[in-house]
Structures are given as structure tokens and as C-alpha cells.
Amino acid sequence: NFLLATNDKTIKLWKIVERTKRAVGFNTVTDAGLLRDTQSVTTLRVPSFQPSEPYIDVVNRRTFANAHAYHINSVSVNSDLQTFLSADDLRINLWNIDNNTESFNILDIKPNNMEELTEVITSAEFHPQQCNEFVYSISKGAVRLCDMRDSALCDRHAKVFEEPEDPSSKSFFSEIIASISDVRYSHSGRYLLTRDYLTVKVWDVNMEARPVHTFQVHDHLSQQLCPLYENDCIFDKFECGWSGDDSHIITGSYNNFFRVFDLKTQYDVCLEASRDCMKPMQPLRPKKIVASGPGKRKKDEVSMDSIDFNRKVLHSSWHPKENILAVAATNSLYLFHAPNKSR
Predict the structure, then answer these.
(1) What does the alpha-carbon distance between residue 40 and residue 34 come to, in Å, rounded to a whole number?
(2) In this structure, are residues 108 and 49 in contact, taking their beta carbons and an 8 Å threshold?
(3) Across the chain, which distance is largest between two alpha carbons, in Å?
């Protein structure tokens, strides 16, 4: 198994192996891992492998560096398993998994004069089956689909997915909340999932005019954009993801809440990732956000005034085959398993 990971500027390929044997009997190292005094080594010993408890061995196989001037926001492995892309604010590079010395620039939106810059790349991903197609999202609220067969530099997109803005609802915050923070292909490749600040949308790749589904993630925040701008929360970047059968989607919110949407029934549930409200192997109780004001609230109701904007679920993912969710909340990683997907 291999894992491709990145920080701000450097991408690394890791090999992950579960082992059940350990090498013991080294000349210069004790079984506890401490260095021996070389002068005390008087005999030659050949290390041997002995059975041990299963453990995970992680080895860095390759490092891909020095190709991005800005922070990397996305890496995506191609369906051919030989190439992958990496994207920053202004460029997308194409790498070969076996060559870490050079990459090919397949998209560059950097203007000659940086004062003319009007948009940045926020996310990018390869098509799960067609190795020549990829999509990328921009801060202006659009998703562009590119075909690498058209030209070596994909500066002209094949399709653009963008919902027209309602002039009557335009405000100072319109462009900020319309910025797409994440875009994901469905496993079938038929649909696209995009996340902006307030909503998550499902697009049919054959219909560019409008999304087929639009779900409100935290609509109660639409009247609090001014304080959210002042504390910089309006610039938070939330991820989204598909279930393995493409029937459900997941995305995060504030107060360590995350939401799961059923595309068929339009049913959605708000859940909390917290040690205080969960026990191992116990089902999570849905949460409901209610308006602030006097009066008693039910146990699972949360007032809008009590939402903690420092506790947020920015990263969430669904296992590609199993019904398992991974949710990163604050400084903890939670794994949830749902044996019954009907609710």
C-alpha cells in the first residue's frame, strides 16, 4: 500500500506495510534499539527475523519538491496509477510517480502583472476512470473541467460548472461565500460534489447550467456574515466527500458538527464529533440547531448563540468501500461506523 501526502511545499510518497516479523540480533544495536559500544563487539552476528506482534512499517519511498512557489492545496492520483497532479493557488503540475526530479506544468493562471489577479485555484482532482480529464475549482465559485488531450497546457477548459448569481442577493460577502473550497468526483465519474461556505452542491457532468442538488450546511449563519468576516471564520475551507456507493455525501461545520445527506431521500442528519457526547459502539444522537431565545430546549437541541466557531470539522472523508467515516475535529480524529445506511 502506498500513501501520497503533502505539506505546504513538499509531496512525499510513503509505503505502508503491516509486518508480523522483526529483525533481531544486530551487531551494533541492541534488541531495545540502543547503540552498542563498537569496542565491545567481539563476534559477528547475522540478524534474523522472528515472529512479533503485527505492526505498521512506514517508509518514505520518494520526495517531490521544489515545484511550487505557493502553498499546495491538492494532490490527486490519476486512474493510470502512474501519474498524479499537485495544485497550488496559481498552477497545476503533473508528475510521474517514478520521477521526482521534474514535473510538467499543465495549468498556469498567473497573470503577467499580479495586480490583475482576480481568481485563484482552490482544489483539483483527476477523473476516477478517465486518465485524461481533471477538474479544478476557483475562488470565483466555478468548477472547470479540462481534457489533457486538447493541448499540453490546459489553459482552455472543456466545460465550466457555475451557477448564475442572483443580482438581488448580491452583497459584499457574495464572492467570499461563493468561493469553492473543495471539489470531488463521484466514484462513478458521473457527478461532481462542490462545497462553498454555506452549501454543498451536486452537479451532473453532462449539465453545466445548474446543480442537480443543493444542500444547506449551516444556513443559520447567513445572517451572521459580518461577525464571521471580522473573526476570519468566513475564510474557513471545508472539505466534502462521497460514500462508496455515491448515495450519501458528508461535509463539516462548526461546533464539531458534521452533516450527512442522502441524495435519494433528501434526508440529512447533523451529528457531533465529541468525546463528551459519545461512547464506543454507541449510536450518535442527531443534533438540531435552534434559534436563540428564552425557554427550555431539548437535550439534543443547540442554540445558535452557543455554537463554538473554534471547534470545526474542516476535514472529513468516507471510506471508498466500507461504511466508515473519518472526521477530523479540532485536534482529534474520529472514526464512525454505520451498519445501517437507511438513516
Answers:
(1) 14
(2) no
(3) 86
Give the DSSP letter of residue 177. H
The residues, any chain, with a CB within 8 Å of residue 150's CB and separated by 6 or more, are 156, 158
Other residues' Cβ atoms within 10 Å of the Cβ of residue 311: 15
Amino acid present at 27: N
Query: pLDDT tens digits for 305-318?
Result: 889 999 999 999 99
Residue 74 · residue 123 · CB < 8 Å: yes
Give the chain's residues under pLDDT 50: 341-343
Q: For residues 200 and 176, what is the distance between their CA atoms, to the nearest angstrom?
A: 15
Q: What is the dihedral of CA 77, 79, 83, 84, to 10 degrees?
A: -20
Q: Is 292 helix (H, G, I), strand (E, B) or coil?
A: coil
- Cα 29 from Cα 24, distance rounded (Å): 9
Whether this model's pTM surpasses 0.85: yes
Amino acid at 302: V
The C-alpha cell at 120 is 485563484
